[in-house]
Amino acid sequence: xxxxxxxxxxxxxxxxxxxxxxxxxxxxxxxxxxxxxxxxxxxxxxxxxxxxxxxxxxxxxxxxxxxxxxxxxxxxxxxxxxxxxxxxxxxxxxxxxxxxxxxxxxxxxxxxxxxxxxxx
Length: 120
Known about the structure:
The protein is an alpha+beta fold. The chain is 26% helix and 23% strand. The chain contains three helices and five strands. It has helices spanning 37-41, 80-93, 107-118; strands at residues 21-24, 31-34, 50-53, 57-63, 69-77. Helix 2 (80-93) runs parallel beside helix 3 (107-118). It starts with 20 loop residues before the first strand and ends with a helix.
């Protein structure tokens, strides 16, 4: 799909995540740690992608009727339990062994794990 410019916020909302952030596909099958908006624009993005900012706010990438993509902040913070399961699945897909032992207890743990997995 290539690089997308997704600067448009949802109507009545602003897109101001706290950087860095984690970006994932809609099923959590892949993750990337992005330092800021410029790095986000370099990601392959499509409707359903999710961004978790460094404070735990979740944004979903949606598509407006006119086809424009925009980020919409969700009303609840990320579930660390859900994020832990997704990151274990992502690690397993990368061929990392012993994913049962992987455990994140904080958002900082999640960011550190994704950075480590990006280097594998």
